[in-house]
Amino acid sequence: MKITELIHQPEGRRIEFKESLPTVSDLAKTIVAFANDAGGELFIGIKNEPREITGIAEDDVMALEEQISNLIHGHCYPVIIPELSFHGIEGKRFIKVQIYRGSNLPYYLKSKGKLAGTYIRVGSSNRPADAEIIAALERQRRNISFDSELVHDKPLADISLEPFQEFFKEKTGEALTDATLRKLELVKDFQGSLLPTNAYVLFSDCQVKQELFPYAKIECARFKGSSSHEFLDQKTVDGNIAVQAEAAYNFVLRHINRGATVKGVYTESRWEYPVVAIREALRNAVVHRDYSLAGKDIKVAIYDDMLEITSPGKLLPSIDFNEMDARQSDIRNKVIAPVFKKLGIIDQWGNGLKLIADELKAYPEIEFKWFERGLQFQVQFLKKNYKPDGVAVIAGESAGEQYCAKSGLSLDQVGTKLGLSWEQVRPMLFACEKPVMIRELMTVMGLKNRSKFREKYLTPLLQEDILAMTIPAKPTSSRQQYCLTEKGKLLLADIRKTS
Fold first, then answer.
1. Are 41 and 124 in contact (CB under 8 A)?
2. Within 10 Å of residue 171's Cβ, how many Cβ atoms?
3. Residues 110 and 84 in one domain
4. What is the pLDDT of residue 12?
């Protein structure tokens, strides 16, 4: 970007403006924060608000250069070498201090030491790094990821991987043997013992995962209107991370509308949001979130006017959402990402952002925005033509009434006939649009007890001929899946007609 364009950019993660040389402390904080993050450019001689080139006196320029270099050398550690350049516009001189992302992380103020003097860039401000962030910076220096670190105090025998093993076999056709676990680095040899990694725990559904990673989950919510004051529906997706994105995606599909458009002699259905882009954003949120940040989960919020996905962890320094068409690739979780690729959940490296960008082109009525909010990354899909006076429609509500009429039941009698409320029937229908395994259905419904799930949900829908088995001759087959019958498809079609 040309200097004339740069100086009109807003202050942010990689750019800052100062009318005059800041205090030693403020300058040092900015320098170490840039070096610890994505690098950055500090302009001296340019006022930020309002943006104005105030300039530096010609006689002071050379002295200021030496002063800046000495301050950085004397107060920042490890050594940071700035790149200083002088520029002039309309007869006014200013200095650009270019700081590149460092390789000897973390950088900090000498006077405060590493624990108190490490700073990171959050938006346009410099924030002190806590112990978690400092540990993350040290891992980056050693080129290791949090998900690859060993869990020393939890033996493998205490961590059940059974649901994931079945899922892995279904998706890859391979058994998840000890050799495969080693190859995928889900387990590692350590002093004669085989120990699990953090990634191994995250792919489990056991109590250990809840103890170590209670926030490795997705909180989904559908709100009334355009604020978060009133819930219409909410769901916690807390199973193993391999199935979380799809469960959250199914929640989204239940709460967004699908209409029809006529093209020539054909009628084509179309979701109100770019669902391929949303699914990719959800997968990215799970694969690339920062699992080392305690107390933070992924959040999916659906409002009348937009859909929002928030993921723990700042955007990786090498990724620029302003260049979504470029095939960018960087990996925070070096064990989890290859496993997801092997499972076919994510595509080739660097393809995700382009998939989002490509589908957005077919949705000119949707505006895509992204933000770094503190230590979280957020994307929004906004309806450009949203009218606050519009009435929000909950997908399938009228369809439920239509189904009841066709089956000779009142809405209240659905509970009597099936043992289920309409709100419980609806997510099962969406999940079974394509053949699906029982464990995936249990994840969608947020249940873990297979016997109770069969008794309460699966058996009534099978008996009413709404769902069917793909292998009816072998009800207990390990390859058994469940799908919609013609009756079930009719019910789902009614939902979509009224959505």
1. no
2. 13
3. yes
4. 87
What whole-number distance in Å separates Cα of residue 385 and Cα of residue 443?
A: 35
Neighbouring-strand partners of residue 150 = 197
CATH number, position 93:
3.30.950.30
What's the CA gap between 335 and 28, in Å, rounded?
35
**Cβ count near 250 (within 10 Å):** 24
Say what the pLDDT of residue 408 is: 40
Q: Is residue 327 part of a domain?
A: yes
Under a CB-based contact definition with an 8 Å cutoff, are residues 451 and 459 in contact? no
CA–CA dist 314, 240 (Å, integer): 23
Residues 364 and 269 in one domain: yes
* Average pLDDT, 10 consecutive residues per value, the chain (499 residues): 83 92 95 94 93 91 92 96 92 94 96 96 90 93 94 92 94 94 95 94 95 96 91 93 95 86 62 94 94 93 96 78 56 93 78 82 93 89 81 38 42 47 77 90 85 86 87 88 87 67
DSSP code of residue 434 = S
Look at residue 488 and tell me if it is in a domain: yes
Q: What is the pLDDT of residue 419?
A: 58
**CATH number for the domain that contains residue 336:** 3.30.565.60
Q: How far apart are CA 24 and CA 44, in angstroms?
A: 14
What are the angstrom distances between the C-alpha of 187 and each of 173, 183, 197, 384?
20, 8, 6, 48
Residue 156 lies in domain:
146-212
> Between β-strands 467-469 and 482-484, what pairing exists: parallel, antiparallel or unpaired?
antiparallel
The string over 379-402, giving b where at least 16 C-beta atoms fall within 10 Å of a residue's C-beta and e elsewhere, is: bbbbbeeeeeeeebebbbeebbeb
Quote the pLDDT of residue 244.
Answer: 96
Sign (positive/negative) of CA torsion 304, 307, 313, 314?
negative
Check whether residue 229 and residue 336 sit in a common domain: yes
Q: State the pLDDT at residue 398.
A: 42
**What pLDDT, on a 0 to 100 scale, did the predictor assign at position 417?**
47
- Residue 67 φ then ψ, to 5°: -65, -40
Both 344 and 234 in one domain: the answer is yes
Q: Which of 106, 121, 141 is the C-terminal boundary of a domain? A: 141
Count of domains for the chain: 4
What confidence score (pLDDT) does residue 22 get? 93
The last residue of a domain, from among 191, 212, 233: 212
Sign for the pseudo-dihedral over CA of 278, 283, 288, 294: positive
Our separate counts of H helices and E strands in the chain read 20, 22
How many angstroms separate the CA atoms of 154 and 146, rounded? 16
Q: And the tokens for 102?
A: 């460092």
Question: Alpha helix (H) ranges present in 173-240?
Answer: 178-183, 198-202, 207-212
Q: How far apart are the first and last CA of the chain?
A: 45
Positive or negative: CA dihedral 137, 138, 144, 147 = negative
